[in-house]
Specification:
Length: 289
């Protein structure tokens, strides 16, 4: 099911090019939905106990996101779980906190949001987040929410996309939100400046494969929902590219030579975005060892 909800123009939204963004709701399974708009995919679990949200895109979009949620339930958002610190996944934290949601994330998310961050690969300086946007409950290895007759198992994975990534598994609904450790819109963004690592992205995919089954609906950080077979293909692709890059570096090639060799071309159709950025960060990470 897809439902689009109206655009609201505010100076901030217009400035950020968000004033025409519409929030679309897709029902996945067992009272769990995916919301798209701009930024990272949002997970939403609705039930008798609580409304549980995974990530919240950008601040100007919060009223539209809340309106999309209100189209499904009249219950307030009780929890917001951040899969990692990036601005397109946590931008709505402050507003969500203002409507009473408890913000929960890995401790490194709070650390990075509390201080300004420079993201090398994006050449972007991100200011420290306002105190109202900071997670108030943090975890190290993981945490479980017992809500709506479901166990929502949140698992921290070793440095992957960043050093504060978490997987969110709605065990009974059989839905898993992978944050940006898995995307279907292109090759991964391994944010080395946020402690990310290709080895962790591969390990996270292994963990997702181990935690799920053939019927699991998997919410990527960006792109369309997927199944476990797609995560296997992602894992296999990343292992092959890591091995290929290792061989290229051993052969003494420069990053420009590797780019010219177009090693990611076979994956362009199924994973269209981010190829040059991926190759540059992969080379940087493996060449520094
Ligand atoms: Zn991200």
């Amino acid at each position: 099911m897809a439902l689009a909800l109206g655009a609201v123009s505010t100076p901030l939204a217009a400035q950020a090019g968000l004033d025409t963004v519409q929030i679309r709701t897709t029902s996945l399974a067992g009272g769990v939905y995916m919301l798209t708009g701009s930024g990272g995919n949002i997970g939403l679990a609705v039930g008798d106990d609580a409304v549980f949200v995974v990530d919240d895109q950008y601040a100007p979009l919060t009223p539209r996101i809340l309106a999309a949620i209100a189209a499904i339930t009249d219950k307030p958002v009780r929890f917001v779980l951040n899969t990692h610190w990036h601005f397109d996944h946590t931008g709505g934290n402050e507003h969500m906190g203002e409507v009473g949601a408890l913000i929960v994330a890995h401790e490194n998310v709070r650390k990075r949001m509390s201080a300004g961050q420079f993201i090398d690969a994006l050449n972007r300086q991100e200011p420290a987040a306002p105190s109202g946007a900071l997670p108030v409950v943090t975890f190290t290895d993981g945490v479980t929410f017992h809500i709506n007759g479901d166990s929502v198992v949140v698992t921290h994975v070793a440095p992957a996309h960043t050093d504060g990534d978490a997987l969110v598994h709605f065990t009974k609904a059989n839905v898993l939100h992978a944050g940006d450790t898995f995307i279907t819109s292109g090759l991964p963004f391994v944010d080395l400046s946020s402690g990310g690592s290709i080895h962790g992205v591969i390990a996270s995919a292994e963990k997702v494969i181990a935690m799920t089954n053939e019927g699991t609906r998997i919410v990527p950080g960006h792109g369309a929902p997927a199944d476990r077979a797609r995560v296997r293909a992602w894992r296999d692709m990343l292992v092959a590219l890591r091995d290929r890059m290792t061989a290229e570096i051993r052969a003494g090639r420069t990053v420009e030579q590797v780019l010219a060799a177009n090693i990611t071309a076979p994956y362009l159709k199924d994973w269209p975005g981010g190829h040059e950025r991926f190759v540059r960060s992969l080379y940087r990470e493996l060449a520094r060892r």
